[in-house]
Design goal:
- With 357 residues, the protein is of the alpha/beta class.
- The protein folds into 2 domains: 165 residues, Rossmann fold, CATH 3.40.50; 167 residues, Rossmann fold (3-Layer(aba) Sandwich).
- It contains 10 helices and 15 strands.
- The strands form 4 sheets. It has a 6-stranded parallel β-sheet.
- Helix 4 packs across helix 8 and helix 5 packs across helix 7.
- This is DUF3326 domain-containing protein.
- It comes from Rubidibacter lacunae KORDI 51-2.
- InterPro entries: DUF3326 (IPR021763).
């Protein structure tokens, strides 16, 4: 009997689009999802984060994708944590006490709809013991960020879900400030602005993942905006209803767990599994990319995905392959997976050079 053919390790790609930086692709709700869908056809395993996959009430099932919160990605890339794939999670729903009763009801009905329609497993929900007091800020660069007035209240509620309700993932809905007449919001709705909510959302999810080491994602609670005939298609996903919760619940349903590297088990993913990371070419200063630049992982920097930042890979000592578009990045991934040197795809191949001892 012939010996079985050797198996190849899974080809694993990390798709990164930092939040709140006005990315041309990925700066809106779900507009990087087509990129994720395409890369998922090339990779055996796609690792990415909520900013890429969340489309408010829109989402797309990707069986080979891992939905990983940004702080968890940083710890994973640093080699501190491993990712442990799971079949399903018990999702705890955490609601801000500042949410009005009718808006709270809308979110509870969305959660019940996810249970009845998608078969998701949710625990009892909790309401924070004080309003979270979210405030939004914008840096001079145009990048959004935010603060939380009652972080302790958020963490107490999250701990209740984990310890008393047995939640293995947490969906947070915080009441965000309404500012329908803001020029920044009007620009955003027309496809030219920065997501003012994203920076504060990251603060919320980072705090829970850092403290409790459980998957977490956030959906803002806002009053519906009046219809806008000039709405950009890229902003349209956020205008479909009363809640952004459905995509968060769908993502968390199979979000991998976090474990310390010292407790690594068979089947866990370590940072050494990452074959390539794809990122905007002007947003290369994040912890995840900086950590992976010290490994064998190939960095692919996409020029077309412009941002409000100007952090190129080269000044940071990151060896990255620059491409113009995500289409070109996908071609590069295909060649890498096949083991084809990219020089061989050009009409002129330079001769070998002699290396002197």
């Amino acid at each position: 009997m012939a010996a079985p053919a050797p198996t190849q390790p899974p080809f694993t790609v990390l798709l990164l689009v930092p939040t709140g930086i006005g990315a041309a692709i990925g700066g809106y709700a779900g507009d990087a999802l087509p990129v994720a869908r395409a890369i998922a056809q090339v990779a055996d395993c796609l690792i990415t984060h909520p900013n890429v996959l969340n489309g408010a009430q829109l989402y797309w099932p990707l069986p080979n994708a891992l939905y990983v919160e940004g702080y968890g990605l940083d710890r994973f890339a640093a080699g501190d944590w491993v990712l442990r794939p799971v079949t399903s999670n018990r999702i705890g729903l955490l609601l801000d006490a500042a949410i009005e009763s009718d808006l709270r009801l809308r979110h509870l009905q969305a959660a019940d709809a996810a249970r009845a329609t998608l078969g998701l497993d949710l625990t009892e929900y909790v309401i924070t013991d004080a309003p979270l007091a979210v405030e939004l800020r914008t840096a001079t660069s145009g990048v959004s960020w935010g603060t939380l007035g009652n972080l302790d209240s958020l963490l107490r509620a999250a701990e209740t879900l984990v310890k008393q309700a047995g939640a293995t993932a947490i969906a947070v809905v915080a009441r965000f400030p309404d500012d329908a007449d803001s020029p920044a919001l009007q620009d955003y709705r027309r496809g030219t602005g920065v997501d003012a909510l994203a920076g504060a959302e990251a603060v919320i999810s980072h705090a829970i993942v850092r403290t409790l080491q459980v998957p977490c994602a956030h959906a803002p609670a806002l009053k519906p905006l009046p219809p806008d005939p000039d709405l950009s298609p890229r902003a349209a996903a956020e205008e479909l209803g009363y809640t952004f919760l459905p995509c968060v619940l769908a993502g968390l349903a199979r979000a991998p767990h976090f474990a310390a590297l010292t407790g690594c088990r068979p089947g866990d993913l370590t940072r050494d599994c990452i074959d390539a990371i794809v990122t905007p070419a002007t947003a290369c200063g994040g912890s995840t990319l900086l950590s992976l630049s010290q490994t064998r992982t190939r960095a692919i920097a996409v020029a077309a995905n412009t941002t409000q930042l100007a952090v190129a890979p080269e000044p940071l000592g990151i060896k990255a392959t620059r491409v113009n578009s995500y289409l070109e990045a996908i071609g590069l991934l295909v060649a890498q997976r096949a083991g084809v040197a990219t020089d061989a795809l050009h009409p002129h191949i330079p001769p070998l050079r002699r290396l002197l001892p």
